UniProtKB/TrEMBL annotation:
Domain of life: Bacteria
Lineage: Bacteria, Pseudomonadati, Pseudomonadota, Alphaproteobacteria, Rhodobacterales
A matching Pfam family: DUF2007
InterPro entries for the chain: DUF2007, N-reg_PII-like_a/b
Biological source species: Yoonia litorea
Protein name per UniProt: Putative signal transducing protein
C-alpha cells in the first residue's frame, strides 16, 4: 500500500474516500485509533492508503478535486 493523503481534518478524509469510492478505488485509513493516545485533540494526522497499482489514478482524482495531499 502507498500513502495517498495525510491530514488532521476528518472532513477531508471523508470527502476523499467518497471520491475514491465513486471511482472504484479501494482505500484504507491508518492512524484512526491514535485519538486514544492523543486524547482526541486531533494532533496526529490520519493517513489514507491505496494499493500501489491505484496510486496514480487516486492522485489524479485528488488533484481534480483540489485536495492537498499533505505529503512533503
Amino acid at each position: 500500500m502507498k500513502e495517498l493523503l495525510r491530514t488532521n481534518d476528518p472532513t477531508v478524509i471523508a470527502f476523499a474516500t467518497a471520491l475514491l469510492d465513486s471511482e472504484g478505488i479501494d482505500w484504507f485509513t491508518f492512524d484512526v485509533n491514535m485519538s486514544v493516545l492523543e486524547g482526541s485533540i486531533g494532533i496526529m494526522p490520519r493517513r489514507l492508503m491505496v494499493m500501489d497499482r491505484d496510486l496514480f489514478m487516486a492522485e489524479a482524482v485528488m488533484r481534480d478535486a483540489e485536495i492537498d495531499l499533505g505529503r512533503d
